[in-house]
């Protein structure tokens, strides 16, 4: 063998090799070709196939729930996954602004039914094809189903998406369990349950058990922007990594990017406490304290949120992402934030009753402030901003007194 000649490469000198390879491939194709079914028409073959009945679901996974579509781990291409190409039936429970926005976002690639609690409101949605109460100016497609019957909405759904205010989560989950038990559940509620201080996942686990296939959809998202197709990024969090892996490509859309997280506690704490901090930010802005004060409040508020999340078993890095910092920044600075508007009105001297009546929407930070103060006390977590908001809302402290109390605190390490 001469210098520079590679072992095993001598076949390129054999001029007959290409012809032999071509013949070999042709032979492979002939042997792979299925034998013709002579004497049977296409219709006959189809009828015979129908008679065999449905194929068993080889991909069934108990953690995904009985209503889940089969998992196709390696068959979905990345592009199809990014477009949310797996069409499923989704029941969106809650016809407020956020529920309507999510119904619109998922309506394109999926079959969506929107359920509303009030029959009169549902009749308005059907007649006007617009949610003029909560999301005016956004048209509802004619083929988006709207119903006041939870049985009709949920009975055939592959996924139940609960978008009621937190106060309605428990009752809605109970109703869904009656209609179709075992169906995968995602909620988009934020806050702590009044009276118990429970996080949403704790409410769900009390009703469905700890092994229920479930997760939360949370992050920085104003309903009006999502409904109008403006780019948004949110988080799907669940303790079950398989649940997230399965539903992430289903919910992910080109203009509604969904990121995965397995820190359910951290994601929910971030979503709940940002509303309390937004009230504080509104008070600061309303009193004219400027951008420096707002930046300090957001930063120190994030530190408080992270301390409580870690005390409850969450991961601090979760609060650096969409469910924490992202949601906090948006809610503390955006003019569409209901909780920030509560703070602005408090700074003007309005009473809470008047503010909530004029708002016309639920501001989850109001009941959450009381519960988070109690929760922090039980776990020994220092949360001066949340405590000040609670005193301002529920214990008669004025905005000026709350600010004076915070500014009088002793200096300390960051």
UniProtKB/TrEMBL annotation:
It catalyses: sn-glycerol 3-phosphate + NAD(+) = dihydroxyacetone phosphate + NADH + H(+); sn-glycerol 3-phosphate + NADP(+) = dihydroxyacetone phosphate + NADPH + H(+). The active site is at residue 274. Sn-glycerol 3-phosphate binds at residues 190, 219, 221, 274, 327, 337-339. Residues 89-242 form the Glycerol-3-phosphate dehydrogenase NAD-dependent N-terminal domain. The keyword Heme does not apply. One of its GO terms (cellular component) is cytosol. It is an enzyme of class 1 (oxidoreductase). NADPH binds at residues 98, 134, 190, 223, 338, 362, 364. Residues 70-79 have a biased composition (Basic residues). Residues 1-79 are annotated as: Disordered. It is found in: Cytoplasm. GO terms for molecular function: glycerol-3-phosphate dehydrogenase (NAD+) activity; glycerol-3-phosphate dehydrogenase (NADP+) activity; NAD binding. Residues 263-403 form the Glycerol-3-phosphate dehydrogenase NAD-dependent C-terminal domain. Keywords: Cytoplasm, Lipid biosynthesis, Lipid metabolism, Membrane, NAD, NADP, Nucleotide-binding, Oxidoreductase, Phospholipid biosynthesis, Phospholipid metabolism, Transmembrane, Transmembrane helix. Pathway: Membrane lipid metabolism; glycerophospholipid metabolism. Its EC number is 1.1.1.94. HAMAP family: NAD_Glyc3P_dehydrog (MF_00394). Belongs to the NAD-dependent glycerol-3-phosphate dehydrogenase family. This is Glycerol-3-phosphate dehydrogenase [NAD(P)+]. It comes from Pseudothauera nasutitermitis.
């Amino acid at each position: 063998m001469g210098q520079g000649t590679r072992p095993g490469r001598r076949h390129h000198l054999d001029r007959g090799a290409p012809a032999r390879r071509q013949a070999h491939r042709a032979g492979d194709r002939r042997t792979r070709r299925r034998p013709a079914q002579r004497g049977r028409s296409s219709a006959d073959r189809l009828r015979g196939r129908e008679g065999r009945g449905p194929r068993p679901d080889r991909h069934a996974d108990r953690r995904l729930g009985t209503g889940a579509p089969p998992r196709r781990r390696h068959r979905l291409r990345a592009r199809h996954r990014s477009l949310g190409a797996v069409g499923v039936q989704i029941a969106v429970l809650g016809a407020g602004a956020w529920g309507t926005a999510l119904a619109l976002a998922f309506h394109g690639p999926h079959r969506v039914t929107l359920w509303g609690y009030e029959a009169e409101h549902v009749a308005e949605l059907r007649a006007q094809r617009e949610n003029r109460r909560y999301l005016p100016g956004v048209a509802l497609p004619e083929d988006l189903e709207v119903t006041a019957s939870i049985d009709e909405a949920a009975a055939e759904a592959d996924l139940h998406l609960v978008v009621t205010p937190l106060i309605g989560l428990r009752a809605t989950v109970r109703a869904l369990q009656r209609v179709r038990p075992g169906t995968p559940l995602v909620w988009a509620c934020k806050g702590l349950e009044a009276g118990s201080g429970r996080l949403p996942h704790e409410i769900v686990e009390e009703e469905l058990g700890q092994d229920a296939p479930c997760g939360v959809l949370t992050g920085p998202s104003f309903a009006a922007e999502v409904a109008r197709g403006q780019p948004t990024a949110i988080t799907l969090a669940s303790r079950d990594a398989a649940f997230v892996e399965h539903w992430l490509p289903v919910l992910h859309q080109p203009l509604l990017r969904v990121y995965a997280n397995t820190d359910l506690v951290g994601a929910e704490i971030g979503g709940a406490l940002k509303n309390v901090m937004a009230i504080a930010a509104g008070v600061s802005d309303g009193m004219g304290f400027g951008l420096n004060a707002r930046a300090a409040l957001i930063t120190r508020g994030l530190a408080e949120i992270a301390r409580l999340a870690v005390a409850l078993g969450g991961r601090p890095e979760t609060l650096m992402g969409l469910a924490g910092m992202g949601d906090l920044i948006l809610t503390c600075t955006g003019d569409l934030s209901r909780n920030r508007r509560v703070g602005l009105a408090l700074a003007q001297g309005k009473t809470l009753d008047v503010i909530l009546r004029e708002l016309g929407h639920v501001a989850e930070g109001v009941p959450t402030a009381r519960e988070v103060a109690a929760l922090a006390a039980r776990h020994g977590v220092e949360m001066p901003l949340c405590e000040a908001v609670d005193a301002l809302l529920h214990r008669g402290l004025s905005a000026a007194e709350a600010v004076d109390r915070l500014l009088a605190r002793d200096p300390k390490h960051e």
